[in-house]
Amino acid sequence: MTTRVRAATDDALQMRHLLYGHLLSRALVVVAELGIPDLLADRAATAAEVAERTGSNPVVLQHLLRSLCAFEVFRETEPGRFALTPLGATLRADAPATARPTALLLGGEVGAAWDGLAGTVRSGRPAFDRVHGTDFFGYLDAHRHFREVFDASQAAGVELESETLVRAVDFGSADTIVDVGGGDGTLLAAILAAHPRPRGVLFDLDSVVSAARRRLTGAPVAHRIDCVGGDFDASVPPGGDLYLLRHIVHDWPDDRCVAILRRCRQAVTPGGRVVIVDRVAGAADAGDEARMTALMTLYMLTVVEGRERTAAEFGTLLDRAGLTLDAVVRVAGDTVALVARPGPRPR
């Protein structure tokens, strides 16, 4: 076999690996839905034992578990008996920064939207809207269980980033931190726990803030957090000297992002900062994080109207909003904190 033919064959095989990759995701979703990582948390078990406890077919389940051994999710300790690996343990419900709610999210309504990707490519509109008859955030408000799964996935994501983020950005010198679209308050509470000086304002939709108040009750920093309901498409609470937008900008198209950032610029006190935490696309390397960011772009386009942006695209948004980039701080992988300050008037 010539070098050229061998290379072509290798490329063809690699392409097939990519094409069949969605089966791996579906297999992981099934494992999470059945709660198998929790069943194997303390000891190995046979496929028959797991099948009995999950109401599954033992023959098919054994093939599922054995297939995932090839990806180091499980380990076959002896024929037909399976144990959980450290990688697989991240799908346990009680794992730190558990991946289980993300698996449930991708396997449900979000997964159904992926089948409409071709329509998104043609129309430029999120497939989620067409598949479910409403936009993603409207669906969240109307479906309590979906909201609970989404919030759990978001909280796990915060847990992945918060330890690094609270140290990477100078939050300690702020007097008032406004967490715009701050969800259940997990991140804001972590920031305030690490920095005794600032007070915090948790700003999100009324329904989200109501749940956050209940969650924060009794938290050591609860007395330093004001929960404010509202819509950042209309206004943001004034008077903060640091406005934080973690994974908010990537949810929206450019014009809407500019409008949100302009409101933050108008609300921030003189000398204050606007901090955007998001992935930055377009990295020169093709490592795992760059691939993840590429996939997240497709995710955002299919589910909402957002996208992951390059450094230059973020620069354009900031310029249009009247903000000047002051610093870029790496948080984790391709995720960075873009620290901006009010600059020339918005264009």
UniProtKB/TrEMBL annotation:
Residue ranges of every copy of the O-methyltransferase C-terminal domain listed in the record: 114-323
GO-annotated biological processes: methylation
GO molecular function: O-methyltransferase activity; protein dimerization activity
Keywords from the UniProt entry: Methyltransferase, S-adenosyl-L-methionine, Transferase
Active site residues per record: 250
Cited InterPro entries: COMT-like, COMT_C, COMT_dimerisation, SAM-dependent_MTases_sf, WH-like_DNA-bd_sf, WH_DNA-bd_sf
CDD domains for the chain: AdoMet_MTases (cd02440)
Every O-methyltransferase dimerisation domain range: 17-91
Protein name: Methyltransferase
Organism annotation: Nocardia terpenica
